[in-house]
Amino acid sequence: IAATQPSTNWHLKENARDHHTSKFSSKELIVRRGQAFIVTFNGTEQPEQNLTFIAETGPKPSKLAKTQATFGISSTVSKESWSAVLQSTSSNSVSISISSPPNAVIGRYKLSVRSTSSDSSSPASLGTFVLLFNPWSSGDDVFMPNKAECDEYVLEEFGIIFAGNKNHINSFGWNFGQFQEDILNICLSMLDRSLNYRQDPATDVSHRNDPKYLGRVLSAMVNANDDQGVLLGNWSGNYDGGKSPSSWTGSGEILQNWKKSGFKPVRYGQCWVFAAVLTTVLRCLGIPTRTITNFSSAHDADGNLRVDEFYDASGNHLDRAADSIWNFHVWNESWFSRSDLGPSYSGWQVLDATPQEESGGIYQCGPASRNAIKEGDVDLDYDCPFVFAEVNADCMYWNYDPATGKKTLMFSKSTVIGQFISTKAVGRDDRVDVTNDYKYEEGSKKERDIFKKARKKLGLEDKFDPTAPTPQEIDQKPDIAGKFKVAGPLEVGKDLNLILVLANLQSDAKTVHVNMTAWSTVYTRRPVHEIWKDSIPVTLSPKEEKQFPIKISYTEYQQQLTTDNTIQVTALCHVEGGIQVLVQRDITLDNPAIDIQVLGEAKVNKEVDVEVIFTNPIDMEVTDCVLQVEGNDLLRGVLEIAIPPLKASEKSSTKFKLIPFETGPKHLLVNFSCDKFADIKNFKMVNVID
């Protein structure tokens, strides 16, 4: 090889097209494993059969660890190892097709070439390239046979996340932005900042061929606990010193901020933010991934498949148990095979980056095979008992007397947890319900059998649990039944009207003392501020049903509301001579609407005007109004626009210009905040033409 540095043509356009990496905005070659790519270089004066290539990754490349490969030119592609096949030669250049095995380590590689004939020559560097997982290749652990699913779960940068509560599901758009500039580099540096890499870099890199290893490591790195990872969680309702979790509209800004600050955790995240960022990172690396929302999600802290909630005599929900039932929780599913468990456990795997419980001493969760969850195989790796409880735990509601420490069971339910498990449809903006993929039908014999199987595998059947209710307590029957009905709109800025319905189930009269409270909460149902309380005496004739209207005015709740717009209303009914009855409802209030209009046709590299319209629906002024706008291929980064205060019922119109830089269907996301309304979101599909 000549002394001059060879110049390399990486055929960026053709290789990217063949490898489904055209969306990356990079001057570096990005290809997928188990598939050939073309490279042409000059400066070699040797006959090509004398060339040896070296591909290496990580700090200590070694053949044994599969982080280094040396290979000459052969006539055919090898399935097991790296290989090079000659494409063409001219007087001063050589074109080679290089293939990596389908189980190669992913990451940034150095490629060099040396002449076999002269021992003394040191290899000449051809440059670097990045190797990713390949869901389009049947030999890869992440192979996904359905092309439309590959498009959605690897290449789609826009997502929809479901939230709210089981009575009232709402959704918002998210910009995953996995192909934005520098995101791939940030994802690779995330791997190099993990605890595993810090403890033993060479071993960590040698495991980077395994999606279940990377999924687990990244579930730890997306939260800041243990490892100075990406996002700091905060569920207090007070988000001073950072951005409120509900104000983000995409992952790009979060990942860029993490890097810009010298890798200090970004403030603040809650479950959907952790899940969205993990989706971005895994899609970027080529692992098919989606977000999943579970409504009425159990956080079973003590691993007994039971969640205990405590209320005092006034009906206040006490924040004294480690267990909790969240209005919703968002986690991830990633698609890959489980050679460690066997083919029946391959497919969708649950990963969860929200720091809830430690696993192996750090805050990480998964991969838990979704099939294992459905079949109650909770003894399989990783963290199946926790995920099983999230969708299946039994709920116990206790009355607790703080003075004496005495607790009495009010009632228990085995059908509350794990409802309307939701994800975005492939290629459409609709909700798809995947509850049946997590469990057999609620209340069916099969579902109860699986629950017993799981309890048995966890050793809960044989162990005496002093905190568990007695069979007598579980079997006791209440004398009355109650529920809260909604009577009017559930909107921020309007009064909240409810009806408490109480029914006497017995054929003798009942005297009841009802204590009612309303608290603002975070979406985890953690109480933040008391809004209202009242108590009423009630007498019910035999089999009588009575209705009691309740009105909580906007002025009463306005200052107490969290950015989640959630209120928990509780009525604790003390029935004379009978057991206490708890009636409760979690209410999510909708924000007012915001409207997006694209004025004219959106064309590549041409200005187009966008108008965002918001009408202040309340009879007082709103101040501190800020509009945030982002959208891949429509604008770079996040646009922030300050809007003047709006008087009662005043309409505001904000115009700004976009210059789209790619054709196709793109999504524009907006987020509007002011002192009275937090994070009003909307998105609009913009079809960009040539």
UniProtKB/TrEMBL annotation:
Co-factor requirement: Ca(2+)
Key words, A-Z: Acyltransferase, Calcium, Metal-binding, Transferase
Top EC group: transferase
PROSITE patterns: TRANSGLUTAMINASES (PS00547)
Keyword Calcium recorded: yes
Domain Transglutaminase-like: 263-355
Name of this protein: protein-glutamine gamma-glutamyltransferase
Gene (name only): Tgm3_0
